[in-house]
Design a protein that fits this description.
The chain has 108 residues and is an all-beta fold. It is built from no helices and 8 strands. It comes from Corallococcus carmarthensis.
């Protein structure tokens, strides 16, 4: 069991599968905020009730990335070296999930 007072700025937030979602940039009485970066296009608020456990400087959430409401990967987060994307799909938010190997893949 964790105490909300144990959650501090700079800690790494991970989904239930261990995928790093970003760092904590702010903490308030209701929860904390994950900073924008590779996963989130803007800061993402999280309530303390969504936290499953703490392990050192890692905060584990109860859900995986695909089930976080409103969460989408930042543009280009999983871009491959091949630049042959269709122009209509570049700016469209895409939901992602984990495959059987634990890799992050787009949901279809």
């Amino acid at each position: 069991m964790f105490k909300p007072t144990d959650i501090q700025r700079g800690m790494t937030v991970r989904d239930r599968d261990g995928e790093a979602l970003g760092g904590i940039v702010a903490v308030d009485p209701r929860g904390f905020t994950i900073g924008k970066g590779r996963i989130f296009e803007r800061e993402y608020p999280v309530r303390f009730s969504d936290v499953a456990d703490l392990d050192g400087d890692d905060v584990y959430l109860r859900r995986d990335l695909a089930s976080l409401p409103g969460a989408v990967l930042a543009k280009g987060a999983l871009e491959l070296e091949d630049d042959t994307c269709h122009p209509d799909t570049v700016n469209r938010p895409v939901a992602y999930t984990h495959d059987l190997t634990g890799a992050l893949v787009p949901m279809e």
